[in-house]
Design brief:
By secondary structure, the protein is α/β, with parallel strands linked by helices. It has a single domain, classed as 3-Layer(aba) Sandwich (Rossmann fold), CATH 3.40.50.1820. Helix content is 43%, strand content 11%. It is built from 10 helices and 6 strands. It has a 6-stranded parallel β-sheet, with helices on both faces. Helix 3 packs across helix 4.
């Protein structure tokens, strides 16, 4: 176990280093990204939720980018995400966020989209499950698609150690506090999972929605978007920012597959698969679904 923990710690620091590069590329490419990423015709409310151990400021670059594009993006206002305390954590969180969600919905005249990184994505799904009348859609960034005990082995051991250090409980203990129906069922709103095969914290077998559950039928689409990137830097990765803006604006009644080629310079559409490795496979899976 000591060897596994040492290797996973190294994987985490590699992931963190990659994230630093992603942020640098976001800063350098910001003028280009602002021209490429789609903009809403009218302000659309977005609430962002940080990952486990992440301070609220960690998503400030994402909020700032979305706001400059014309979205009304705000952080969740609950500070650092210290993870679940017990079975009452999610209901209490929903109660604390409800006034903010109602305010954002009133200001824009529409429902609120949730964008959550890692554990923040899990929280976003549960908020949507509790308040579907207020939530437009959920976009997760490197988040376990569904909570499953058999997926814990694919998580970086550093995450387990951090969870025990911060709140004194193992991930397994938190799962035992969670009602069984929350472990598998998706929320009653559109769900998009953005994930990476190179994620150094959570494996893609956990962060991607199972292929058999991908669908565009009705008003509850379920979509995977695979990107080239790290776990820690997903919220500042330029190709993620484009995908998030695109998926925030696609209509629920006319939902179509994300097409990265729409954002590539003329004659370079073939390169889209370099940045979105699962483009061909995911589109085939969606067509089959």
């Amino acid at each position: 176990m000591a060897i596994r923990e040492a290797l996973d710690l190294a994987r985490f620091f590699v992931d963190l280093g990659w994230a630093t590069g992603e942020y640098a590329s976001k800063v350098a490419l910001d003028p280009v990204l602002r021209r490429l990423a789609p903009k809403p015709a009218t302000p659309k409310a977005v609430l962002t939720l940080p990952g486990f151990g992440g301070p609220e400021i960690s998503l400030s670059p994402l909020n700032a980018f979305l706001s400059r594009q014309g979205f009304m993006a705000e952080g969740w206002g609950l500070g650092t995400n210290r993870g679940p305390r017990d079975g009452d954590t999610i209901p209490e969180m929903v109660a604390r966020l409800r006034p903010k969600l109602e305010r954002l919905a009133d200001k824009t005249g529409g429902k609120v989209a949730l964008v959550g990184q890692s554990l923040g994505g899990i929280y976003a799904r549960e908020i949507a499950r509790a308040e579907p009348g207020l939530i437009d859609r959920v976009i997760t960034l490197g988040s376990p698609a569904y909570l499953r005990a058999d997926g814990l082995e694919h998580m970086n051991a550093t995450l387990h150690l951090a969870m025990r250090w911060i709140n004194g409980k193992k991930v397994e203990d938190h799962l035992s506090d969670t009602p069984p129906d929350l472990l598998h069922d998706a929320p009653p709103v559109p769900l998009v999972a953005i994930f990476s095969a190179y994620d150094g914290v959570v494996d893609e077998t956990t962060t991607a929605i199972p292929v058999g559950e991908l669908t565009f039928d009705g008003k509850l689409p379920r979509e995977n978007i695979e990107i080239l990137g790290s776990h820690c830097g997903m919220a500042v990765n330029p190709i993620v920012l484009i995908a998030v803006c695109d998926r925030l604006l696609v209509g629920t009644d006319t939902w179509t597959a994300f097409n990265a080629r729409d954002y590539m310079p003329t004659g370079t559409g073939f390169a889209a698969k370099l940045f979105y490795p699962g483009l061909r496979q995911s589109r085939t899976a969606r067509t089959a679904a």
